[in-house]
């Protein structure tokens, strides 16, 4: 009797199901993608101590969904968020204004579930988080790009976009912005632009969706940055943030802050039985004592890695690469000459053990970023950054003739 082949699953899959994901075979030698962080900066011993203390004190409550503390999440975790946002982002809230989410991606999904329907329109910075762009487009929503400059979203461009949409009878569902360490360009939106964005949002009756996932990682220090947009007008803003980039992305610890009429609906949409309580206990216990010292040390290490990457790109690519040096975070955005299509470098680079984020995946209009790319400098060591950038320059030259070998090889030390 022959073994069953099973049903024809391809025929049964729902329409629009994504293509199959290949089996994971490990990270490439030179991994410049994603939001990974520096593994040497994970405080393993301190986290183990924090976990032991938190579980010893509160572990019996794990018998209850949400540890019996309600659907907003662990009270200690929400107190941590409220304290951090007050001290560093100028936000005056209590734990009851905070919803803990399983990563900021869940926050994105919840807000989109609440506000978006097919045919709606939203406004995005022309270059933005690829995960946010793809999520909105998959819902059949029109994404209108707003031009950026070295300081973030341009308010003249935002005003023009809102006026043009109003002339068509269209009111956008929200303005999505990453104002503090913009992803992918690394800019910080100045205070006057934040006020102007709020003026436009109020004038056109559009909420602001503020994503501050990288706002804690500032080279000049968190005290030097403008307050969160939410701090300036809480009624006008939905705010999300994360501890993935400051502690550990594997912990999936993030949060949403919004006026109660909005937050209460997000709670209703969050039907996962609660974000992992052990993770919340751990983050609250460790960061409740060590947030500032941990972040200060981490940003110092990341800034050094950025300097290493900038030096490597300038050495290997010379004038062929225009760099957008970030004011914080973990990414370097760069533009190659317009004749370079970075999507055609993905496979050749992968064969040489290099992975990077091609620019079109981070642009509302993919064609506008065909010669641009994003490199994450947090995960690789300084030595890996130097070697990986050099290898990537060789791949780029072999495929496109750019950068010229005279600048790419002759000036390389050793």
What attributes characterize this protein structure?
414 residues; alpha/beta; Aspartate Aminotransferase, domain 1; Aspartate Aminotransferase, domain 2; seven-stranded mixed sheet; 14% strand; globular; disordered C terminus
Structural description of this entry:
Helices cover 40% and strands 14% of the residues. The protein is globular, with a radius of gyration of 22 Å. The strands form four sheets. A seven-stranded mixed beta sheet has the order 2-10-9-8-7-3-4, with helices on both faces. It has 13 helices and 15 strands. With 414 residues, the chain is an alpha/beta fold. Residues 406-414 have low confidence and may be disordered. It folds into two domains: 26-43 and 293-408, Aspartate Aminotransferase, domain 1 (Alpha-Beta Complex), CATH 3.90.1150.10; 60-290, 3-Layer(aba) Sandwich (Aspartate Aminotransferase, domain 2), CATH 3.40.640.
Structural class, from secondary structure content? alpha/beta
Number of strands: 15
User: What is the top-level CATH class of the largest domain?
Assistant: Alpha Beta
State the distance separating the first and last CA atoms: 66 Å
Proper CATH architecture of the largest domain: 3-Layer(aba) Sandwich
Number of helices: 13
Strand portion: 5-15%
Q: SSE order, as H and E?
A: HEHHEHEHEEEHEHEHEEHHEEHEEEHH
Point out poorly predicted stretches.
Answer: 406-414
Quickly count the domains: 2
Average predicted confidence as pLDDT: 94
- Indicate the CATH topology of the largest domain: Aspartate Aminotransferase, domain 2
The shape, in one word, is globular
Largest sheet: 7 strands, mixed
Strand order in space, largest sheet: 2-10-9-8-7-3-4
């Amino acid at each position: 009797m022959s073994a069953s082949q099973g049903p024809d699953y391809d025929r049964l899959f729902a329409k629009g199901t994504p293509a199959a994901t290949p089996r994971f075979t490990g990270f490439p030698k030179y991994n410049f993608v994603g939001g990974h962080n520096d593994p040497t900066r994970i405080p393993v011993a301190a986290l183990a101590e924090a976990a032991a203390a938190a579980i010893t004190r509160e572990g019996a409550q794990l018998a209850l969904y949400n540890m019996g503390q309600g659907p907003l999440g662990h009270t200690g975790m929400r107190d941590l968020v409220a304290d951090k946002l007050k001290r560093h982002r100028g936000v005056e809230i209590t734990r009851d204004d905070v919803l803990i989410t399983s990563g900021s991606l869940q926050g994105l999904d919840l807000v989109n579930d609440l506000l978006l329907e097919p045919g709606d329109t939203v406004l995005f910075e022309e270059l933005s988080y690829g995960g946010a762009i793809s999520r909105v487009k998959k819902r059949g929503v029109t994404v209108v790009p707003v031009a950026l400059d070295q300081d973030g979203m341009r308010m003249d461009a935002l005003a023009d976009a809102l006026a043009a949409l109003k002339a068509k009878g269209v009111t956008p569902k929200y303005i999505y912005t990453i104002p503090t360490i913009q992803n992918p360009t690394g800019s910080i939106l100045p205070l006057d632009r934040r006020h102007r964005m709020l003026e436009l949002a109020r004038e056109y009756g559009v909420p602001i969706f503020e994503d501050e996932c990288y706002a804690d990682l500032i080279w000049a220090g968190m005290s030097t940055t403008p307050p969160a947009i939410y701090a300036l007008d809480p009624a006008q803003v939905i705010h999300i943030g994360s501890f993935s980039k400051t502690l550990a992305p594997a912990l999936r610890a993030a949060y949403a802050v919004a006026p109660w009429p909005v937050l209460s609906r997000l709670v209703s949409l969050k039907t996962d039985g609660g974000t992992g309580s052990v993770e919340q206990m751990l983050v609250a216990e460790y960061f409740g004592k060590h947030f500032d010292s941990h972040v200060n040390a981490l940003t110092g290490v990341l800034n050094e890695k950025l300097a290493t990457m900038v030096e490597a790109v300038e050495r290997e690519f010379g004038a062929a690469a225009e760099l957008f040096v970030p004011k914080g975070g973990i990414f370097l955005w760069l533009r190659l000459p317009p004749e370079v299509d970075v999507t055609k470098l993905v496979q050749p680079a992968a064969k040489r053990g290099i992975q990077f984020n091609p620019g079109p995946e981070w642009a509302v209009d993919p064609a506008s970023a065909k010669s641009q790319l994003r490199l994450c400098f947090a995960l690789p060591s300084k030595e890996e950054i130097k070697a990986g950038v050099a290898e990537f320059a060789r791949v780029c030259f072999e495929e496109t003739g750019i950068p010229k070998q005279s600048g790419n090889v002759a000036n390389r030390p050793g």
